[in-house]
């Protein structure tokens, strides 16, 4: 493994699901979600992040947008970390990421972050929390995970 830190970010709070024809993939962040995204950018903005990856869902991209602005790094969209990604797709993605130099941030979904953690074999499924607007920092050299949650009331 080469990466020093991997930040696993669950997308921030999105607006309500609508019962119309609008694709859920296009659902944007709520006002609280936008604040969470700003808080995430403030927290990670001084880190030397090399790459930003997001699920193709609007709420994941919008969660990383403030961090992209602060870090001056382009957001790379990857369907392998989308809400409907398979274990095989996730495993292939993670295998590529852990061999890259430096620090990286991944923004995905509540069903995907725990799978990534399981693929990294860090925690048992019973100990995984994954609130909206949260970050996992995975230190790959020490096999340690730090969990941070940004709540907006």
UniProtKB/TrEMBL annotation:
CDD domains: HP_PGM_like (cd07067). Pfam families: His_Phos_1. InterPro entries: His_Pase_superF_clade-1, His_PPase_superfam. Coiled coil: none annotated. It comes from the Bacteria. This is Histidine phosphatase superfamily (Branch 1).
